[in-house]
């Protein structure tokens, strides 16, 4: 049978092409142009080659914030992924309680980042906040405004409080998709709870967990609002992450050239990590 | 109209080369559609995958040269061109 080819369908892609060009390609081209120039104003820009990249890649401030960013993102994953799985495993599977748990888990996800930051800013204060006052009452010297360790713990706690629900909901949906026959077979084999988790539930959760890890990594890697509202990046620079360093450079100091070079390095890191996750997901699908 | 984009000649050349490579790859794909294959890379890849991997690794190679050495950028560029050719052919 002869197949009729109709290339007019390609015109349907045109709106998306234009949208991506306006929202991503043209801004990206502009950033690349800025990254090779010293810009004073609209009419005064001088070509400096790769000088800003050299400066940015050798700047200890940026090394520190990159290191902090990776530690933060890995800490977020190390806490939220096991905790999310544990919450999903403990959730009731049927009845009104299941619906209630789903609603309760979904509530933190509906709260905007800046509101979460403000809630914890007050909640963690030693004088008027319940959390801060309770810790101090227990004899723990907790003060997120002056102690870097406390600031880190609070920023991590905020993210865990805000986003573990997402991992839990993803895992819950993954667990619900496991056919009952698997559990019946495990019961016949008298498999322990651990064996059921290790050989049935965990392998079946792999796909949702990869998506959960990707979402949480990307989101934590671009964290800005919560530490900005809570500590303003302090004490010192202890909670200043990549996006905050970039914002300070671009908007605070108006160093457009170094900021553009820095955002391109940031973009390349995000691109590499996204590609690794994408490749993992597609190869897992193929392996099935 | 595009003065706000602050165009410079090297950046214009860079994006023109990328656009030219993409156009060539599109024409090549239409004339001779590729199939996924396994080369020296640890995963099976299509032609487009190999181009992406080659370009991304070239970008990182440039960053390594910029961050760690004061050598001229023509050196990583030459290495990147050879690397891209190798990865497209045997990757």
From TrEMBL, chain A:
Keywords in alphabetical order: Membrane, Transmembrane, Transmembrane helix, Transport
Domain ABC transmembrane type-1: 66-277
Annotated InterPro entries: MetI-like, MetI-like_sf, Sugar_ABC_transporter
Superkingdom to which the source organism belongs: Bacteria
Residues that span the membrane, as ranges: 70-90, 102-123, 151-172, 207-225, 259-278
Signal peptide interval: none
Pfam families, per database record: BPD_transp_1 (PF00528)
UniProt keyword Phosphoprotein present: no
Topology with respect to the bilayer: Multi-pass membrane protein
Subcellular location: Cell membrane
Family per similarity comment: Belongs to the binding-protein-dependent transport system permease family.
Protein name as catalogued: ABC transporter permease
Source organism of this protein record: Marinobacterium zhoushanense
Taxonomic lineage from the root: Bacteria, Pseudomonadati, Pseudomonadota, Gammaproteobacteria, Oceanospirillales
UniProtKB/TrEMBL annotation, chain B:
Chain segments annotated as transmembrane: 6-30, 51-68, 74-90
Top-level taxon: Bacteria
Keywords tagged on the record: Membrane, Transmembrane, Transmembrane helix
Protein name according to UniProt: Membrane protein
């Amino acid at each position: 049978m002869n197949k009729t080819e109709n290339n007019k369908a390609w015109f349907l892609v045109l709106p998306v092409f234009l949208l991506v060009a306006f929202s991503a390609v043209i801004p990206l081209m502009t950033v690349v142009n800025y990254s090779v120039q010293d810009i004073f104003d609209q009419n005064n820009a001088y070509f400096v080659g790769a000088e800003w990249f050299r400066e940015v890649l050798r700047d200890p401030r940026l090394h520190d914030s990159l290191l902090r960013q990776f530690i933060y993102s890995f800490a977020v994953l190390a806490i939220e992924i096991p905790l999310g799985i544990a919450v999903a495993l403990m959730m009731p599977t049927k009845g009104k309680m299941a619906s209630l748990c789903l609603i309760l888990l979904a509530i933190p996800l509906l709260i905007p980042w800046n509101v979460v930051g403000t809630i914890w800013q007050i909640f963690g204060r030693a004088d008027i906040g319940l959390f801060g006052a309770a810790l101090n009452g227990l004899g723990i010297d907790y003060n997120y405004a002056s102690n870097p360790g406390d600031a880190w713990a609070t920023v991590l706690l905020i993210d865990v409080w805000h986003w573990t629900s997402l991992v839990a909901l993803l895992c819950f949906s993954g667990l619900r998709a496991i056919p009952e026959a698997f559990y019946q077979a495990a019961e016949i084999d008298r498999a322990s709870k651990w064996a059921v988790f290790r050989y049935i539930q965990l392998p079946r959760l792999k796909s949702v967990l990869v998506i959960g890890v990707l979402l949480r990594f990307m989101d934590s890697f671009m964290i800005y609002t919560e530490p900005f509202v809570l500590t303003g990046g302090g004490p010192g620079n202890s909670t200043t992450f990549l996006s905050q360093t970039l914002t300070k450079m671009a908007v605070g100091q108006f160093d457009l050239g170094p900021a553009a070079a820095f955002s391109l390095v940031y973009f390349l890191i995000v691109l590499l990590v996204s590609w690794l996750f994408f490749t993992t997901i597609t190869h897992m699908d193929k392996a099935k | 109209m595009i003065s706000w984009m602050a165009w410079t000649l090297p950046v214009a050349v860079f994006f023109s080369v990328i656009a030219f490579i993409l156009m060539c790859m599109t024409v090549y794909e239409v004339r001779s559609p590729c199939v996924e294959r396994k080369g020296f890379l640890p995963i099976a890849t299509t032609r487009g995958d190999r181009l992406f991997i080659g370009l991304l690794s070239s970008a990182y190679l440039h960053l390594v040269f910029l961050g760690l050495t004061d050598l001229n950028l023509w050196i990583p560029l030459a290495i990147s061109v050879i690397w891209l050719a190798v990865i497209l052919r045997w990757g």
